[in-house]
Amino acid sequence: MIVFIAFLLDKGNENGYPWIMEQRKGDDKMNEKKKTRKCPACNGSLKASRVENVDVDRCRKCGGLTSESMYLGDSYTLVLPYFHEGSYREDEVRYFDFTTLGSEGVSRRHGWYVPRTRRIVQVG
Ligand SMILES: [Zn+2]
User: Is 98 part of any domain?
Assistant: First the structure.
């Protein structure tokens, strides 16, 4: 819902138009919700980032990547749809949680992966 509040603040305005203040209450609420969204893995704060040319939110605390909306193909750029083979260190594993849009509609990919190989070690 958009609420318009108009005030005549300056009658001496050179164009003769009143100042108009526009308040978008719905947008404010949405922004507030986005700001308070936390990392699902560790509850850390998120920072809008660009990784491998894909827009994601990166957790400041654990380095996990999340997105509420991305193309399925872009999600494969970050995390391949394959399981990791071979050894890895526990400290290099990161969380991911992507809501994706692909040819089969909206779905969710989430779990733990190794950024070095971009492969999954655990789903969910
Ligand atoms: Zn985190």
Answer: yes
What's the burial of 108, exposed, middle or buried (CB within 10 Å: 0-12/13-18/19+)? exposed
Output the pTM of the full model.
0.71
| Ligand 1 mean position, distance from CA 85 (Å) | 24
Distance CA 60, CA 44 (A): 6
Dist CA 79 CA 96 (whole Å): 8
Segments forming the whole domain that contains residue 6: 2-31
For residue 71, CA distances in Å to 48, 88, 103 come to 16, 28, 10
- What pLDDT band is residue 20 in, cutting at 50, 70 and 90? very low
Residue 79 lies in a domain: yes
Q: Are strands 20-23 and 65-71 parallel, antiparallel or unpaired?
A: unpaired
How many angstroms is it from 116 CA to the middle of ligand 1? 18
